[in-house]
Structures are given as structure tokens and as C-alpha cells.
Design brief:
The chain has 290 residues and is of the alpha/beta class. The protein is 46% helix and 13% strand. The protein has 10 helices and 9 strands. Strand 3, helix 2 and strand 4 form a beta-alpha-beta unit. Helix 1 (34-49) runs parallel beside helix 2 and helix 2 (97-117) runs antiparallel to helix 9. The longest helix is centred in the C-terminal third of the chain and has 22 residues, at 244-265. The model has no long low-confidence stretch (mean pLDDT 89).
């Protein structure tokens, strides 16, 4: 199956020492295929190696930041070989059974997100509209999150019978009880609620989102680069001492046990769900919660 050429699915721009890395599949609400994953990785690497870049902003073009992993567009490329970058497992193409899915998700989801979390320069996620499932993963690897007041968040993959997305940082990003609530229900939560539980640093009107993000980036950029890198590593190490990395490893195993269970009892490893059915289920759930 041929994957269509969509042009630059990630764009890169530097302004006053701030690198803007922007997801650029707005027609698909910036759903993440592998092309986008590797383009993101290349953009982050470019920003890290550029001494003139002090801060990295991760943004999404269009109305939404990211609707998550691509499970239904013409650009879905889970079957395509790419040169591994995280290299936490071998290549997935032509591997049998669960080895194929485990290998791919270890590379493009868990492995890449861990790689990006360790970028030595400060990163800020600038979020508007939808930030769903895999979108949360991209936001959570960033050091700060600035959200517009129209942003909303959710991880609805329990609808597939799967315990959350592959980069399972929920208890550390949201606290255990709220993490359970949003996973158990699949409900959306607002930017204001995300701010209240400590997931988001700022909530601003949509028209002021870029201005506020740039203002924060400017204050960070004035600090010593080496000191920032060490401080970032210090906080990340403390999170890992609080169990985040080990917890993520254990849940990744549960995640793939769920895929295998679905494949045995249902039509496919996603529990028979696709992008349309997931969206419809989420709409019905959120209407019922009002």
C-alpha cells in the first residue's frame, strides 16, 4: 500500500533563539503517522545541535494540536520501514505476531517519547483545540505546557480495552485519582482542569497563546544554557526516582497484553475500534456527562 506524499508534515522555524517545531497535518487534526514521528525527531535534533536555539516550542498547525496516533487516514504507514532512531528493539516490518506491534510501538511511541523527554534544551508545548491520546504523549514529554482556553484533553483508549497510551505518564502528570477518572470514563477535560491538577503551566485566550508562549520562552532563554540542561536532567531524574520510568515499563507490557487479548477475542488488536468509532463513542460519552 502506497503512502501519499503530504509534503512537510513537520515545519521548522527559528525566531529570536526559539525553534518552532510544528505538526503540519491540519486536515487530519495533526494525527501522528510514522512520517511525522521521524520528521519530529529530525527537527528536535536540528534544534539541539543549533547553538543559537535556546528554547524549543512544539506546536500544531490548524485548529487542533493533535488528535493522537493515526489509525485511519490514507497516510497511515504502520507497515512501512524507517531507519530506527530510538533503537530499543529491532525493526518491526516482516516480524510475526505480537513481535511486529511490540517492535513498532517500542520504537515510534515509547522509545521516541523517552528520547524527546531527554532533549537537553527546554521544551514548551503550545496547545490549542484537541490534545488526545498520542497528543498527550507529545505534550507530556515537554517541560512546560501553555494551553489556550479552548484546549481539551483525553485518553480514550480504554474504549479499546487498552490501559492508556504507550507513554504511560498519567499518574505523574495528573495524580493517581484524576488519572483513574479520565481513564475509567474516557471523558475529556478542559485546559482549566488540566491547570488545576498541575498538568498545564498557563491557560490563556486563544488569540494570546503564541504571545504568552514566546514570553515564557524569552525568560527561559535568558538563563545559562548549561544550567538549564542540568536543571532539566535533575527534575527528570527525580521523576524517575518517583517511579515514572519503571511504571511506564510495566504498563507497556500490560498495553501489549491488551493488544494480544483483543486479537484473540475480537477482529483486531484495537478491539474493533477505528478513528470514526472512537470519535463517535467520545461524543456520546461527553454528551452524557453534561
Amino acid at each position: 500500500m502506497t503512502v501519499p506524499d503530504e509534503g512537510d508534515v513537520v515545519t521548522y522555524e527559528v525566531r529570536d533563539g526559539v525553534a518552532f517545531v510544528t505538526l503540519n497535518r491540519p486536515d487530519y487534526r495533526n494525527a501522528q503517522n510514522s512520517v511525522m514521528t521521524y520528521a519530529l525527531d529530525a527537527a528536535f535534533e536540528r534544534a539541539v545541535e543549533d547553538d543559537d536555539v535556546k528554547v524549543i516550542v512544539l506546536a500544531g498547525n490548524g485548529k487542533h494540536f493533535s488528535a493522537g496516533h493515526d489509525i485511519g487516514t490514507q497516510g497511515r504507514d504502520h507497515h512501512v520501514h524507517y531507519d530506527n532512531k530510538a533503537v530499543m528493539w529491532w525493526d518491526h516490518v516482516d516480524k510475526p505476531g505480537g513481535d511486529q506491534r511490540f517492535a513498532r510501538e517500542m520504537e515510534v511511541y515509547l522509545g521516541m517519547c523517552r528520547r524527546w523527554r531527554e532533549i537537553p534544551k527546554p521544551t514548551i508545548a503550545m496547545i490549542q483545540g484537541a490534545c488526545i491520546a498520542g497528543g498527550l504523549m507529545l505534550a507530556w514529554v515537554c517541560d512546560l505546557i501553555v494551553a489556550s482556553d479552548d484546549a481539551f484533553f483525553s485518553d480514550p483508549v480504554v474504549r479499546m480495552g487498552i490501559p492508556g497510551v504507550e507513554y504511560f505518564a498519567h499518574p505523574w502528570m495528573l495524580g493517581p485519582r484524576f488519572a483513574k477518572e479520565i481513564l475509567f470514563t474516557g471523558d475529556r477535560f478542559t485546559a482549566q482542569r488540566a491547570y488545576e491538577v498541575g498538568m498545564v503551566n498557563r491557560v490563556v485566550p486563544r488569540e494570546g497563546l503564541e504571545q504568552e508562549t514566546l514570553a515564557i520562552a524569552g525568560r527561559i532563554a535568558a538563563m545559562p544554557r548549561f544550567g538549564l540542561a542540568l536543571t532539566k536532567k535533575a527534575v527528570n531524574q527525580c521523576e524517575d526516582q518517583m517511579g515514572m520510568r519503571n511504571g511506564m515499563d510495566s504498563v507497556f507490557g500490560l498495553h501489549h497484553f491488551a493488544h494480544a487479548h483483543n486479537a484473540e477475542i475480537d477482529t483486531d488488536p484495537l478491539g474493533g475500534m477505528d478513528a470514526k468509532s472512537m470519535a463517535a463513542s467520545a461524543r456520546n460519552s461527553n454528551e452524557g456527562a453534561k
